[in-house]
Fold these 2 entries.
Entry 1:
Amino acid sequence: MTSASGLDLAAQRYISNPEIDITLKLALELNRPILVEGPAGTGKTSVAISIAQALDWKLFRIQCYEGITFENVIGEFDYKRQLLHIEFERQKQASAPSRNLEDIFSRKFFIERPLFLSFIENDPNVLLIDEIDKSDEEFEAFLLEALGERQITIPELGTFQASNEKQIVILTSNSSRDLSEPLRRRCLFLYIDFPTLARERRILAVHTGRNFDEPLIQSIAGIVHQIRQYDLRKVPSIAETIDWAKALILLGKEFIDEPTLKETITILLKYQEDINRIDHQLKEIIRLGTT
Amino acid sequence: MPITGVILEFVSMLRFFGLPISPDETITAQRAYMTLGAQEKETLRLGLRASIVKKREDLHIFDTAFEAFFNQHLIRIPPIHDAESYERARRRFLERLPDERYQELGELLLENQIDQATHAAGEMIGIGIIGSSSQVFLDEYSNLLATLRSAFNLSFGVKVPIRDLTPTQRQSLSDRTIEIAATLQLFEQRIKRNIQKKLPDEEVLSREEHPADFSSIDSFLYQDLNAYFSVTNIKEQLIEIGRILASREKRRRKRAKFGKLDFRRTFRKNLANNGTPLDLVQKRRRIQDPEIVILNDVSGSTRWAADWFFVITYAAQKVFKKIRIFEFDNTMVEVTDALKRKTIDRALEERTECWKNTLRKRRIHSDYQSSLEDFITLMKYRPLTRRTTVLILGDCRDFEGMWFRAKPASAELIEKITLPAKRVIILNPEDKKLWNTGDSVVDHYRNAGAEIFHVASLNDLIRFVFELKHN
């Protein structure tokens, strides 16, 4: 089933919502990057991967981290190769002195990395810049040129304009740091929150092969929704909900009672203090989650 | 591509609500509008939202503004030409108002009774309630006007202020509608003037134009702290300062990890290359995270600084991995857990919760002796080590502590803490001239081994904490 964006993300096992579909449609039409924000584990990275699969476009991924630099995403000159080349040329010149040294700052000596590759790629592609908030401010500033003008400047090689007409750039962020205004201004904004009950049931159904109106699937989604209401250090993500559903199916459970929830709660909650916080309220959580 | 009036009007409305929308974003919104069309309201809402809003916090502002604006544009409001259509619009207007008080105010406005309406609104906003902060007045004032304006727009199909209407738009309106719109406009001006006259601190009114000054915290000393503390933008600015400092600190540490070129290792590594230095090895330094224990004096005299300090600590906690934060007046309580909350508001709530479980009954006045005794009890299972720096933020005024042999008992406890710790630093925000006067025991604490510094401003306070990382 195709959505407003014209893409069948469900076929890639990604259950979208109207907000995602419309933002995607605009990104395709207006050729603008999308900045996706939201809590961890709500499907920000998966949306980019699913788009690439649905369109059958190549995916380039940049995983940001503290200290990521220009060289890590654009590329760098191969220092060893340059040295070897100089040494080789020197020996050659000894026998044939007229020969000139080839320019060692050419593409031949340049190790190309994902951002550069995605720009020079002739075919349409998806560029995923994951967890941009983990990178430093300098890196964010460097991206402005690439996102705004769709070009990259490498001082030794010149300016490279994106050679493809169609490219979807998706930046994801968990908001661990506030991103700069200029970067935000260049992007369409999409906030993916935890899914609604109905959407989560559909997600579980797709990933477990069950029907979304089965009592077990309904209970799982309902209970996880109840748990998310608590002020926890880490609330269960969609991936953890899927894992929990798969575990319950594997254990042959058809309904969830207090002992079952107690035994399997570690799949959902990853901090002991979170487990302690809801430990005495499991009965109430099950009651509210299953009604 | 010419930008249609609808998008321009909508963008100017959003700007009025405080969203900073650039011309480039306006063009994107226009392109989104052309792409999606205005047939489906929900599609248009989501499309414009993606193009205009850039922060999660602004989403609800956008949604509210969209509802108010596009209901008017997408739903055709019949023109008011006769008594019957006026009566319908009047009913719609009153129904849209949230409660009886608002409806009474609405009636007064429809009857052009500006004086009475101003008086009624003044009572609703709460002018004259001693102790309410200026921000409360402003929020109430904005809410009241926005509610009235939105109800009027949606019922009578006209935008105020009417001076913004084009002559053609004006011609299409009945005299009665224009009259009510003018009344509403006059009412807005009147009530705004009234509030300005009654507010004790006009600076607060213009705070948005003049952001809070952090160069001196002394200016906040005798102010009603809660009034300032409830102001979201100050909290946000503090959080921002903390974040900036934290990210600078992270970068500094990253650079500090790599030292000079390690010749020995470089030569050894490149032996395989006949000594050609293909791989360079730098010396690596091991930076140990310092353990910091903060004791915040929250008794009356230093409460203001303790509150600022808590917010800053919250914002910068990523840098301080080994930090514990305690607060004291006559007893000590640990509030480290509050720092783990997701938002600063939750953290402040949790901090209040922590105060429910104190080791002894609270008396609000400073008692360094009993507080430090409690601190030693609380630290029993995780004692101080040679790597721990104890940072006390307080004025060293031991109001209720006991004295033995011409020495405060708390000085002995400071000595007891100083022995195992790396350093005990006391940051005293009180004017230096007042040190050692009255119940101030600064010299006694200094003799007990504590280092005492005067912090004159919030910036000093922040800088001090960050400098701890380098010592």
Entry 2:
Amino acid sequence: MAILQKKICMIGDFSVGKTSLVAKFVRQTFSDKYLTTVGVKIDTKLLKLPDGNQVKFILWDIAGSDSLTTTTASYLRGAAGFLLVVDGTRLPTWNSALNLRLAVEKQIGSKPFIILLNKADLQEQWEMNEQAIEEKTKQGWKLLTTSAKNGMNVEQAFLELALLMT
Amino acid sequence: MTEFPINIAKYINSIKESDIVACLHIDEYDTLVSWEGNLVYLGISDLTINQSITSQLGFLEGMLPAIDTIVLRFVSFAEGYYTHVHIVSCDNNTYVLLFDATFEYKQQQKMQQQINDLKLLTLYKDQLLRALEEKNINIKQVHKFKNQFIIKKLQSLATACKKKFY
């Protein structure tokens, strides 16, 4: 059986944990040190779906920004879906994610996406507005609380995106 | 592939990129016709001619056929190696040109890291100031209650004394 290949983009403001989520998902590694991404890092990972089928993810870990530039827009071509990453301890990254979603949709059309509220291991610094989250959930958006540090919902996030795309 | 088509040669000469590392020639059916250069340097293992390029190089998924020229800056396939990818269309064929961007990346990364670190520090400073302000408000409130309590106690003590001695 041919393996499906899907391009997935990691999108979000800087230092929200996009690279860490990919590292955890692909290599099961985590580092506390923040190393900013410039351009895009490409990784692949084979994922087994509950129905037994396999999907090969081509992961595009795009440099963090609060808006879409011409350079970053070119990385989105051919994406089948995207993960919108928010740093749960920095409220402005939530607004960035909302703006980025609109910009991405303008660029590649409506594609499946999931919002990841990352850094759940830092609950004491949590800044998310529960009402805003509830509002988006009511609108049918899929949101997951994740932690690249302890692995919480990381595999689940990619799996759920795969299911949204197939 | 020993020679580039004249349009591709002109394109390479027209852009101000550093050395070209590798070039792939892909036909209109996404089949790799030929390639040359040092792909290993970019973290890409050998490619097989006359086979689908997207199954060999996942990052081209969704990128082909290229109608307009696509430029992807600072693409990393392997840790430590960075390339500018130019996807150029010519006579129903596509040429993928890979230019070395490792040195440029290191400079850009250093600069971006400093910018992002500074942004984070400013944000954390603001968060700390906000927390300090909240604590100050709490302390003032506690002082107010404490003073009210002392006044009440003194008043009741004074009343008790008056009753006892007069």
